[in-house]
Write a structure and sequence with these properties.
By secondary structure, this protein is α+β, with helices and mostly antiparallel strands. Helix content is 35%, strand content 21%. Strands 12, 13, 14, 15, 16, 17 and 18 form a seven-stranded antiparallel beta sheet that branches. A five-stranded mixed beta sheet has the order 2-11-10-3-9. A four-stranded antiparallel beta sheet has the order 5-4-7-8.
């Protein structure tokens, strides 16, 4: 018994550490398959010994949320679901009752409250008892109705998700992220919990209702399915669901499984709930699970194969991801031969070495993963140099996971993303240089620094002979390059890719230093920090960048290729006679005092309360129901965000 109890303690520690890393820090330190295996082992031990430790994940629904978003306790706890991988258990669960079978989407669970026909509140699941208030973000989900016909209080639950296509698109565009998001769920979690809902709006988050919690004075005929139909009538998109009986449940599971490969949204199984609401509620709940519903997870198809090599794939951030290459096997109807291992921590957990016999599967029947290593020869041959540039590598521990990084700032893999930013629309705006084309040009040595883009004519013969290129493509490209020579200094500064410096920041900095590049090159952190909207983090990034003399030399070589019209910064009194009120938290400034200082330097006046003489109320939460917002709406005073204020300044109002 002592050995079993010790094993139980080990399992609790491993699972809690993995759960905290996954839910709070978006880090995956063990695979989903391994987590489920260890969890099931823990459940079995708890049943056998009749002991449940106080910190066991089997009695804790989740982890405490860590963020600056407001927190709120749910009126009713949001429990996890008991689960099975045996479709036959669903038949036993139903007995002679009717049920509703639906997708179990893999995103972020949200509770919505509507009052008087309008969205009143949105709260994340959090740890099941306390969630984060994300109302402002929910308002910009792609498909949430902000107004509905029903005027009573409505509370419903659903899943916020980002589809695979949007995941790939958004992931490829993220320039500032330290590493790409590993899956749509992590991206969705980060998108839903943004402090700035403009970012959420760009992420194409969708909401699918899966449960109605409360709606006053509506007869739902004691039916979950009727509730879902009613929600559709109110304008909500719901998860796909089907009526099932004990006789049809297994066949419906098969029908759902046949749709997985075609689905754009991520799912990790199905949910079965009794259609009879009163009967389901009469069953009550355990300390963790409701007794009226069951989760079904697909039984993974496992195949044994041999690990041939570990391929190390560098990224713009310097992170080098391990990818397992193995003897091809057939899984879920397709041939697979590679699977991401994510990081060194997972490799060590698997004791993964070349030549090992491994079992592989498709997570959620889609993503190839390693389930288990049968021979466990151990991790070896972690590269000491980057496979792309030959620069030195180092193992770093970020949060709870160990990962490999290239330390060479000039690594070609990092250049690809940097050049992609340089040629983007808001920077030098050079058409014809896609990321794939840049990768080819860099690998062949045509481009080593930004200035080289303006001398691609040196390689005309080589470029026109490349696959996918020809005389016409080459001429279009060089014409676009020539057009890009005439630009502005803020665009150039933004194009350099200095951490955190966007186009708006670049314009503010250029204006502060009278568009004098020498002044900017020698600006101190203190001088930069004093600029409204910059702050200490951006000031340090800017000063550090130009503290590197190689960066200065590259910029001067670039400027020699460009034609930049002379500009003179004058602080025109563009806000003369204009009255502002500032409320709420600020994002681009250290505090509201800095916003006030900037407005007053441009001739404006800042007061403390909204009156008929107020011209603008500045509040990043433009849809807030605060007293100042209400007063502004009553008086028809425009409510603008910081972004809009900065845009007004940039455009000279």
């Amino acid at each position: 018994m002592n050995v079993q109890k010790q094993r139980m303690k080990e399992l609790v520690e491993i699972l809690n550490r993995a759960g905290q890393a996954y839910y709070q820090e978006a880090e995956e330190i063990i695979s989903n398959y391994e987590y489920d295996r260890l969890y099931d082992e823990l459940v079995s031990l708890e049943r056998e010994l009749g002991i449940t430790l106080s910190d066991s994940p089997t009695i804790h629904v989740g982890y405490e949320v860590l963020s600056e978003l407001p927190k709120e306790r749910h009126e009713r706890p949001m429990l996890s679901l008991d689960k099975t991988k045996d479709a036959g258990e669903l038949k036993s669960f139903l007995g002679n009752k009717k049920g509703m079978l639906s997708w179990k989407l893999d995103g972020l669970t949200i509770v919505l409250t509507y009052r008087e026909g309008e969205l009143y509140k949105a709260v994340t699941r959090g740890n099941g008892e306390v969630g984060e208030v994300i109302t402002n973000n929910a308002r910009v989900f792609k498909n949430i109705p902000l107004k509905i016909r029903y005027k009573g209080e409505l509370i419903l639950r659903g899943e916020a998700v980002i589809g695979y296509q949007d995941f790939e698109r958004i992931n490829s565009q993220i320039q500032e992220a330290e590493a790409k998001y590993k899956n749509p769920r992590n991206l969705c979690s980060g998108s839903v919990r943004q402090l700035n809902n403009e970012i959420t709006a760009r992420r194409n988050v969708r909401f699918y209702a899966f449960s109605l919690v409360q709606a006053e004075n509506v007869d739902f005929h004691n039916s979950r399915i009727y509730q879902m139909e009613w929600l559709k009538e109110q304008g909500f998109e719901t998860v796909e669901y089907h009526e099932v009986t004990g006789e049809t449940a297994e066949a419906e599971v098969i029908k759902f499984s046949e749709k997985i490969a075609e689905n754009d949204f991520p799912s990790d199984g199905l949910v079965l709930i009794y259609d009879d609401i009163a009967y389901g509620q009469s069953l009550g709940r355990t300390s963790k699970f409701p007794r009226d519903s069951y989760a079904f997870k697909w039984a993974d198809e496992l195949k044994e194969t041999t690990l041939l090599e570990v391929e190390w794939s560098p990224s713009r951030t310097g992170l080098i991801n391990p990818v397992a290459i193995f003897e091809p096997v057939e899984l879920e109807g397709t041939t697979v031969s590679r699977a991401s291992v994510h990081n060194i921590s997972i490799m060590e957990e698997l004791e993964l070495g070349v030549g090992d016999t491994i079992e592989v599967y498709k997570a959620n029947m889609i993503i190839p993963q390693i389930a288990e290593n049968l021979t466990k020869s151990g991790v070896k041959d972690i590269p000491s140099v980057c496979p792309v540039c030959g620069g030195k590598t180092e193992v770093r521990k970020v949060s709870n996971a160990k990962a490999l990084y290239c330390t060479n700032p000039d690594c070609q893999a990092k250049h690809v993303k940097a050049f992609s930013l340089f040629v983007s629309r808001d920077a030098l705006n050079i058409e014809g240089l896609s990321e794939a084309t840049l990768e080819k040009f860099i690998a062949r040595g045509y481009i080593k620094e930004f200035a080289d883009i303006f001398h691609l004519d040196r390689y005309e013969e080589e470029i026109t002979s490349l696959e996918g290129f020809g005389e016409k493509s080459y001429k279009n490209l060089t014409a676009s390059v020539e057009r890009a020579r005439k630009t502005t200094l803020p665009r150039v500064i933004y194009a350099l890719g200095i951490s955190g410096i966007g186009l708006a920041n670049a314009k503010v900095i250029c204006r502060q230093f009278d568009y004098d590049i020498e002044k900017m090159l020698h600006a101190t952190e203190e001088e930069l920090d004093e600029i409204p909207g910059v702050g200490d983090v951006l000031a340090k990034a800017f000063a550090d960048y130009f503290g590197n003399q190689e960066n200065v030399k590259r910029l001067k070589r670039l400027l020699s290729e460009l034609e930049i019209p002379e500009e003179k910064s004058e602080k025109k009194q563009i806000f003369a006679g204009v009255n502002f009120v500032i409320t709420g938290s600020v994002e681009h400034f250290a505090n509201r005092g800095e916003v006030k200082e900037l407005i007053e330097s441009l001739g404006g006046k800042v007061t403390g309360s909204v009156t008929s003489k107020t011209n603008y109320l500045i509040n990043n939460d433009v849809t807030s129901t605060s007293s100042k917002n209400k007063k502004a709406n009553e008086l028809k005073v425009p409510i603008i965000s910081e972004e809009q204020l900065l845009k007004m300044i940039e455009e000279g109002r």
